[in-house]
Amino acid sequence: MMEFVLFLGVCFVLGGLAVASNPSPYYGVVGLVVAAIAGCGWLVSLGVSFVSLVLVMVYLGGMLVVFVYSVSLAADPYPEAWTDWGVVGYGFGLGLVVMIGLIVGGVPGQLVDSGTVNSGGLLSVRSDFSGVAVLYSEGAGLLLVGGWGLLLTLFVVLE
């Protein structure tokens, strides 16, 4: 399991580097999807499956709408690919900065198994099982405001 979580972490960092190092939205969206799915898989491995599901739906749904909008504005006939020297150099520089930051921050020494959100002792109910109930009971107003904002954004984009 530890190897799988480490693999998801590497995919998350590589997806973020793919988004940051590529000026073309066509190739950047691939990195966005890889980073979002790897991050949500990481959250599932920690035991917060509801939060992961909400993040996939909200984050990928919203960001892919922004991607479609930016692609329609920047209709590039010859977008820069990941194999162009400028993009490779920029990605290598970002990867070097991330690696130095991880080493200086002491992250390799902290790769140990920590707890999850599972309750301990007499309480055997996982903490994220109440997420749907809390979302619809206490967050109903925010859901309505968010839905209204998405509807307004749809009309602005279509105009």
UniProtKB/TrEMBL annotation:
<keyword id="KW-1133">Transmembrane helix</keyword>
<dbReference type="GO" id="GO:0008137">
    <property type="term" value="F:NADH dehydrogenase (ubiquinone) activity"/>
</dbReference>
<comment type="function">
    <text>Core subunit of the mitochondrial membrane respiratory chain NADH dehydrogenase (Complex I) that is believed to belong to the minimal assembly required for catalysis. Complex I functions in the transfer of electrons from NADH to the respiratory chain. The immediate electron acceptor for the enzyme is believed to be ubiquinone.</text>
</comment>
<dbReference type="InterPro" id="IPR042106">
    <property type="entry name" value="Nuo/plastoQ_OxRdtase_6_NuoJ"/>
</dbReference>
<keyword id="KW-0472">Membrane</keyword>
<keyword id="KW-0249">Electron transport</keyword>
<protein>
    <recommendedName>
        <fullName>NADH-ubiquinone oxidoreductase chain 6</fullName>
        <ecNumber>7.1.1.2</ecNumber>
    </recommendedName>
</protein>
<feature type="transmembrane region" description="Helical">
    <location>
        <begin position="30"/>
        <end position="48"/>
    </location>
</feature>
<feature type="transmembrane region" description="Helical">
    <location>
        <begin position="53"/>
        <end position="75"/>
    </location>
</feature>
<feature type="signal peptide">
    <location>
        <begin position="1"/>
        <end position="20"/>
    </location>
</feature>
<dbReference type="InterPro" id="IPR050269">
    <property type="entry name" value="ComplexI_Subunit6"/>
</dbReference>
<keyword id="KW-0679">Respiratory chain</keyword>
<keyword id="KW-0813">Transport</keyword>
<keyword id="KW-0520">NAD</keyword>
<keyword id="KW-0732">Signal</keyword>
<feature type="transmembrane region" description="Helical">
    <location>
        <begin position="87"/>
        <end position="112"/>
    </location>
</feature>
<keyword id="KW-1278">Translocase</keyword>
<keyword id="KW-0496">Mitochondrion</keyword>
<dbReference type="Pfam" id="PF00499">
    <property type="entry name" value="Oxidored_q3"/>
</dbReference>
<dbReference type="InterPro" id="IPR001457">
    <property type="entry name" value="NADH_UbQ/plastoQ_OxRdtase_su6"/>
</dbReference>
<keyword id="KW-0830">Ubiquinone</keyword>
<comment type="similarity">
    <text>Belongs to the complex I subunit 6 family.</text>
</comment>
<dbReference type="GO" id="GO:0031966">
    <property type="term" value="C:mitochondrial membrane"/>
</dbReference>
<feature type="transmembrane region" description="Helical">
    <location>
        <begin position="133"/>
        <end position="158"/>
    </location>
</feature>
<comment type="function">
    <text>Core subunit of the mitochondrial membrane respiratory chain NADH dehydrogenase (Complex I) which catalyzes electron transfer from NADH through the respiratory chain, using ubiquinone as an electron acceptor. Essential for the catalytic activity and assembly of complex I.</text>
</comment>
<keyword id="KW-0812">Transmembrane</keyword>
